[in-house]
């Protein structure tokens, strides 16, 4: 399984970006979980958005506040993260990750160790 993120870049406050995570060897339409995480420089990695076959609907980090949306394309090979109304605090490296364990649930979706496969990340920089 491989994950490749793209779509990062530099935007101004209030701008938008659409990140992509292209998968190979993983069936997004089958079992498993795919999640976007981010890591701000000097801080730990945190969950941004999650889509899973283990529960209904998508989950988002509290800081998202309705500004981001996770989605999958019709071919079930690419996961997107649409980000709107970006703030300087959103500056980070964004990663996508896949986890196949059923232990990823509503209360554990942002536990890093539950994810087996990680992409290399894409940098997002928001300037004021």
Features:
seven-stranded mixed sheet, mainly beta, 0% helix, four-stranded antiparallel sheet, single chain, 11 strands, 128 residues
Please describe what this structure looks like:
With 128 residues, the protein is an all-beta fold. It has strands at residues 2-6, 9-12, 17-24, 33-39, 45-52, 58-60, 68-72, 78-83, 92-99, 117-118, 122-127. The strands form 2 sheets. Strands 2, 4, 5, 6, 9, 10 and 11 form a 7-stranded mixed beta sheet that branches. Strands 1-3-8-7 form a 4-stranded antiparallel beta sheet, with no helix packed on it. It is globular, with a radius of gyration of 14 Å. The N and C termini lie far apart (38 Å).
Distance between the termini: 38 Å
SSE ordering:
EEEEEEEEEEE
Main sheet attributes: strand count, strand direction, barrel closure: 7 strands, mixed
Q: Give the overall shape.
A: globular
Query: Which ranges are low-confidence, i.e. pLDDT below 50, for 5 or more consecutive residues?
Result: none
What's the mean pLDDT score?
A: 94
Category by helix and strand content: mainly beta
Q: How many strands in all?
A: 11
Question: What portion of residues belong to β-strands?
Answer: over 45%
Q: Count of helices?
A: 0
The radius of gyration computed from the alpha-carbon positions, rounded to a whole number of angstroms, is: 14 Å
Helix content: under 10%
């Amino acid at each position: 399984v491989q994950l490749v993120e793209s779509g990062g870049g530099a935007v101004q406050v209030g701008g938008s970006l659409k990140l992509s995570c292209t998968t190979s060897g993983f069936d997004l339409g089958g079992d498993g979980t795919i999640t976007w995480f981010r890591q701000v420089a000097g801080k730990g990695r945190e969950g941004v958005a999650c889509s899973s076959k283990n529960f209904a609907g998508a989950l988002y980090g509290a800081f998202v506040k309705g500004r981001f949306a996770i989605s999958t394309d019709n071919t079930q090979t690419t996961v997107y993260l649409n980000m709107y109304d970006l703030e300087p605090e959103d500056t980070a490296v964004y990663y996508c990750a896949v986890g196949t364990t059923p232990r990823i649930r509503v209360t554990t979706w942002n536990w890093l160790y539950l994810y087996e496969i990680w992409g290399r990340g894409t940098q997002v920089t928001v300037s004021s």
